[in-house]
Amino acid sequence: MAFDVQPTLHKILSYLEASGHFGGAQIGDPISPPDVDDLYGAAFMSGVGQAELTLDAASEVHVVILRIYRNMLDETVNVEMDISAAVSNVLGDLLGDYDLGATIRAIDVQGIYGAAVAVEYGYLDFGGKMYRHADITLPLIVNDVHTTAA
């Protein structure tokens, strides 16, 4: 089925949960403050598009935002350094030897099909509780999303 992003989101969530970098993770942005005293990860879609089309199959680019949260007022850590280290660890994993498997062929690091890998930092207010966050843009090239017929 074209533009079926669920397997992609589940692969990213599996990575977040298995990586050991996070105290919790979910698909979608939390609607209330994350209930962990650690880094928290969330994965959600930013866009989907066609990457390649052949006579037999199609590949898509699934642009996922991987958001890393940290309570900004946590005095037990240097929040900025903690977030920056998490970004470095995640990108090191995903751009290095980590294999997302299934139909995810590669990360479109340079943005050949649109968005490139990028990181943006910001602040979020969850009901009066401030969080520092980093948004990692991950454009994923997904193979064989549907078959085509001539």
In short, what is this structure?
This protein has helices at 6-19, 79-95, and strands spanning 24-27, 40-53, 57-71, 104-107, 118-126, 129-147. The protein is an alpha+beta fold and 150 residues long.
Describe this structure as you would to a colleague.
The chain is α+β, with helices and mostly antiparallel strands and 150 residues long. The chain has a single domain, classed as 2-Layer Sandwich (STM4215-like). The chain has two helices and six strands. A hairpin with a 3-residue loop joins strand 2 and strand 3. The two termini are 17 Å apart. The mean pLDDT is 87.
Number of strand elements: 6
* CATH architecture descriptor: 2-Layer Sandwich
Q: Unreliable stretches, pLDDT < 50, 5 or more residues?
A: none
Overall geometry comes to elongated
CATH topology: STM4215-like
Reading off the top of the CATH hierarchy, the class is best stated as Alpha Beta
Structural class: alpha+beta
List keywords for this structure.
six-stranded mixed beta sheet, elongated, alpha+beta, single chain
SSE blueprint:
Elements lengths: L5 H14 L4 E4 L12 E14 L3 E15 L7 H17 L8 E4 L10 E9 L2 E19 L3
Parallel strand pairs: 1-2
Antiparallel strand pairs: 2-3, 3-6, 4-6, 5-6
